[in-house]
Amino acid sequence: MGWIADPNGLDPAGALQSDSQPSNVRDWLAAAGADVLFEATSLNVHDGQPAVDHIRAALEHGAHAITANKGPIVHAYRELRDLAAKQEKRFLFESTVMDGVPIFSLFDQLPAIHLHGFHGILNSTTNVILGEMEQGLTFDEALKKAQALGIAETDATHDIDGWDAAVKTAALVNVLMDVPVKIEDIQRDGIRDLTPQALRNARRDGWPFKLVCRAQRLGGVKASVIPEKVLATSPMAKISGSSSYICFETDIFPGLAITEENPGLYATAYGMLADFIRSAE
């Protein structure tokens, strides 16, 4: 669609007729005189682009960079973190995992904590599909229902095959455990091979299936995203619909858990707003 920029602010009535359309993000940042860049492009699991270039350009321009895109956290976290520090700007990304829940900033309030690992449910699309299949729907029917509810995208491949959950797991490992990990290093298996019968039987036996994200320090860090049977009375088994859950295992707190129940789109927007306020502090 192009770019529109005016350092004095945009006229809503005339914005779409503006002839000021810089050809790239660096020109746009200069034309806008931007102090903050909000980066919200779609996830590219393979290299994090174009978000990585957008954030790099913002920091080099001298603006704070705020993103809801997980790709840069996986593919260029250390580079962008160090660039932000050099430029004395903020690189913030609270909305990348569990919407606007303060996952990353939580650990800013926990100095000297050593994170041993974590486990949780971080993909709402697969959680909805598994729940609907337990009720008797086929995989395709459950997917269509998730799409109708606005939870699943038209192409839900990244969710179904575990890519989205793997990227979130990698982001948490990179930032909170301070261990570089690539997506291909994470054992990944999606939910395509699970049948309604298997899901109903597992639920009946008290061990329902969930797509579980795990990471544990074992020399390095071992991480996985795979369907697991979990005890029906456990916190993870009770996560339904579009809810999410994560439990951190630390040296001080053996189990520090956060549950997010059925968030709306405003939750992700709030995460970016919270980062914006932090950048102005």
Shape: globular
End-to-end separation = 33 Å
Content of β-strand? 15-25%
Number of helices: 10
Strand count: 9
Radius of gyration: 20 Å
Name the helicity range. Answer: 25-40%
* Biggest β-sheet strands, sense, barrel: 6 strands, mixed
Ranges where pLDDT stays below 50 over 5 or more residues in a row are none
Strand order of the largest sheet: 5-7-6-4-8-9
Derived structural class: alpha/beta
Compressed to H and E, one letter per element, the order equals HEHEHHEEHHHHEHEEEEH
Q: Mean pLDDT, as a whole number?
A: 93
Structure in words:
- The chain is of the alpha/beta class.
- 35% of the residues lie in helices and 18% in strands.
- The chain has 10 helices and 9 strands.
- The protein has helices at 25-32, 51-61, 71-75, 77-87, 124-134, 139-148, 157-160, 163-176, 196-204, 265-280; strands at residues 36-39, 64-67, 91-92, 115-121, 187-188, 209-218, 220-229, 244-250, 256-260.
- The strands form 2 sheets. A 6-stranded mixed beta sheet has the order 5-7-6-4-8-9.
- The longest helix is centred in the last third of the chain and has 16 residues, at 265-280.
- The radius of gyration is 20 Å and the shape is globular.
